[in-house]
Design brief:
30% helix, four-stranded mixed beta sheet
């Protein structure tokens, strides 16, 4: 079975989905979500806060490791 992973980076949270393709359909094998508040205060400052950037990058790195450990052969990160 082929496993695929997607990491979605949003203004408030980072999502991970690892899914396997079975009988032409994708079935979720692992799902994670973590709030990082990347967009906190950006409407006023017009800049991303350094601490939010660091937290988001840390979560992306952890989720990528989890996806590989779960057997994902392909990984896509979207923002």
């Amino acid at each position: 079975m082929s496993r695929f992973a997607a990491i979605d980076v949003g203004t408030n949270s980072v999502l991970l989905l690892v899914a396997e393709k079975k009988d032409g359909k994708f079935i979720a094998a692992l799902e994670r979500s973590e709030i990082t508040r990347l967009g906190k205060g950006v409407d006023k400052s017009k800049q991303l806060a350094p601490e939010s950037i660091e937290l988001t990058l840390s979560v992306i790195e952890r989720f990528a490791r989890e996806a590989r450990d779960a057997g994902a052969q392909k990984l896509v990160v979207s923002a």
